[in-house]
UniProtKB/TrEMBL annotation:
Pfam families noted in UniProt: DeoC
Reactions catalysed: 2-deoxy-D-ribose 5-phosphate = D-glyceraldehyde 3-phosphate + acetaldehyde
Protein name: Deoxyribose-phosphate aldolase
Keyword terms: Lyase, Schiff base
Length: 312
């Protein structure tokens, strides 16, 4: 690394020098390690714990133009009590909605411990002025959002305007107040693992509390190798700065097996200190029903039908 961490944000040249001085990612090695970790098997008792852990890490999400207050309330009810017939099932970590749905979501989960997250900053494209992005964020926080999921300007990043991306993240973080900031990299548009590592460091240097793979609107989304690269980045950032940052893979995590792969990846890469909703989330609404079905199978020996749990 050619530039000290205290100097990296002084200019675009300094940021470029620092980010391009990061160690390159061995793509073949990352793919092989991700594949190897994906083959790990876990014992039945550990699987039961992993399922409950994964449920408690889910950000249950609805981000559609057809969202209604009723749909958001129904999702919030499921977030608080994923299986109404089994009170031992843990609640999910958060619900994630558009800014105009935050107030209703906050009222629906009040007192439950479920956080309210809101996408902002012209999600999912990020193509708007900084004033609009700040207004979007401020509105969501005022309505009761505990967390803001912002998208970076991928065009600026890919054209090398790292300072613009950095300054936007700093400004949005300031607009968050006490709310936590998750910075969405949209890794499917970053092309290379080196870019994923650079964008991860850029987001963390600018003050992001979490780095997140994807909006869920672009493929590929949360692949295991990309998540590995991001986990290595937060590990190295902690070693360099003493500040711990969370990770959220989002999009494409559909089965219990997918979710457990992610937990193994976390444990093997950064350690079990990150196996907590405060530091790791799963942006994977569709995985929740599979986790619930697998949990019931382990408890009763029988699979529930696909319509036993509500569909989201």
């Amino acid at each position: 690394m050619t530039t000290s961490l205290t100097d990296v944000a002084t200019s675009n040249v300094a940021l470029r020098s620092f980010l391009h001085g990061l160690p390159g990612v061995d793509r073949v090695g990352a793919d092989q390690r991700a594949a190897m970790l994906g083959t790990r098997s876990i014992k039945t008792t550990a699987k039961a714990r992993a399922i409950d852990l994964a449920i408690g890490m889910v950000d249950l999400t609805t981000l559609e133009g057809a969202d209604t207050p009723g749909k958001v309330r129904a999702m919030c009810a499921k977030a608080v009590r994923p299986d109404p017939a089994d009170p031992s099932v843990p609640r999910v970590a958060a619900v994630c909605v558009y800014p105009d749905m935050v107030a209703g979501a906050a009222a629906a989960v009040k007192g439950s411990g479920v956080k309210v997250a809101s996408v902002a900053t012209a999600f999912p494209s990020g193509r708007s002025s900084l004033d609009v992005k700040i207004a979007d964020t401020t509105f969501a926080v005022a309505a009761g959002a505990d967390e803001i999921d912002m998208v970076i300007d991928r065009g600026a990043f890919l054209s090398g305007d790292y300072l613009k991306v950095y300054e936007e993240i700093v400004a949005i973080k300031a607009a968050c107040g006490d709310a936590h900031l998750k910075v969405i990299l949209e890794t499917g548009e970053l092309s290379t693992y080196d870019n994923v590592r650079r964008a991860s460091w850029l987001a963390m240097l600018a003050g992001g509390d979490f780095i997140k793979t994807s909006t869920g609107k672009v493929q590929p989304a949360a692949t295991v190798p990309v998540t590995l690269v991001m986990l290595e980045a937060v590990r190295d950032f902690l070693a360099a700065t003493g500040r711990k940052v969370g990770v959220k893979p989002a999009g494409g995590i559909k089965t219990t097996k997918d979710a457990i792969k992610m937990l193994v990846l976390v444990n093997e890469t950064v350690g079990d200190g990150w196996l907590d909703p405060d530091w790791f989330r799963l942006g994977a609404s569709s995985v929740l029903n599979d986790l619930l079905m697998q949990r019931q199978k382990m408890a009763t020996g029988r699979y529930a039908g696909p319509d036993y749990f509500t569909l989201d």
